[in-house]
Each structure stands twice: as C-alpha cells, then as structure tokens.
Amino acid sequence: MNKRMEKLLNEQINLEMYSANAYWAMCSWFSDKDLDGFANYFKVQAKEELFHAEKQFNYIHDVGGKVTIGAIQQPESDFNSVLEVFEITLSHEKAVTKSIGNLIKAAFEESDFATHTFLQWFVTEQVEEEATVSQIISKLKMIGDNSSALYLLNTELAQRTFNAATGGAA
C-alpha cells in the first residue's frame, strides 16, 4: 500500500470512529427523552460505524500498511428536535459518502485496484445509509406534532438490531 492511500484510509478510520461517537451522543440524547426506539436506532448505527472502522483497520494491515489512530473530534450532543437529529445525520452520511468517493478516486489515480475493489462495499453501504435516514426524515415530516405517530415510529425503531455477520442493521 502506498503512503497516500495509507494516509487516506487512516483518515477514513478516524471519520468512522467520529461517526460512532456522534451516534452514541445522539443515542444518549434520545435516552434522556425516554425515546428508547430512537436511542436503539443510533446504538445500532454506532455499532455499524465501529464495524466499518474495524473493516478498514483490518484491510490496512492485510495489505501491509500501518494504522495510525488520530484524535477524534467531540461530537455535538445537544439537539433541538427529533427531526434535527436526523437532518444532521443525513448531512453527516452525505459527508461520509463524499469521503468514500474521494478514496475511490485516489485508489484509481494510484492504480490501487485492490483498495478500489475493497471500497465498493462501502459505496453500497452508503446508499443504504442515506436512503434509510431519508425515509425516517420523510416519516418525521409526515408525523409533525402527532405524539401517537411518533410513539409508533419509536416502537418501529426499537426493533432494529445489528447483524455482526454483515456489519449492517437487521
């Protein structure tokens, strides 16, 4: 693995770890509001992000690179509404998608076809992430101030689980 790709992948690991921390902060915010289903959603998200970081960590080692863990920025932990949390989440997932795209572009420029292939899994994952968050935002906008409907969505999100075999939600 060349140094450019090693550096970029290490930065991606850091972004994935930041994502996990951000989602833990969101989980905590929802827990404080007794919205356990929403808290569960973000708990699963945090586990997914750590899975992504570990997958990248293992890949770097598998191809003879060196993992360097950097400082992780403190995430926001105070929010104004349920909708705001998901809008922030969508914005963040779009930034992660862009970062993955930049990694793929760099891998192509470096003729690093192994890394290019490795990153395809993350492209598919990001499509799913953005679609899921967008759907929740649509539901929240339909719900508006209807607490009964919010309760039903909270119950739905409580069913979400982390699938360790695939690294995704079930």
UniProtKB/TrEMBL annotation:
Location(s) in or outside the cell: Cytoplasm
User: What is this protein's name?
Assistant: Ferritin
User: Can you tell me which residues the record assigns to a coiled coil?
Assistant: none
Record-listed Fe cation binding positions? E16, E49, H52, E93, Q126
Originating organism: Pedobacter caeni
Question: What's a GO biological-process term for it?
Answer: intracellular iron ion homeostasis
- Where in the numbering of this chain does the Ferritin-like diiron domain appear? 1-144
Which of UniProt's keywords are assigned here?
Answer: Cytoplasm, Iron, Iron storage, Metal-binding, Oxidoreductase
Record SUPFAM superfamilies: Ferritin-like
Main localization is: cytoplasm
Question: EC number(s)?
Answer: 1.16.3.2
Q: Which InterPro entries match?
A: Ferritin, Ferritin-like, Ferritin-like_diiron, Ferritin-like_SF, Ferritin_DPS_dom, Ferritin_prok
Q: What class of enzyme is it?
A: oxidoreductase
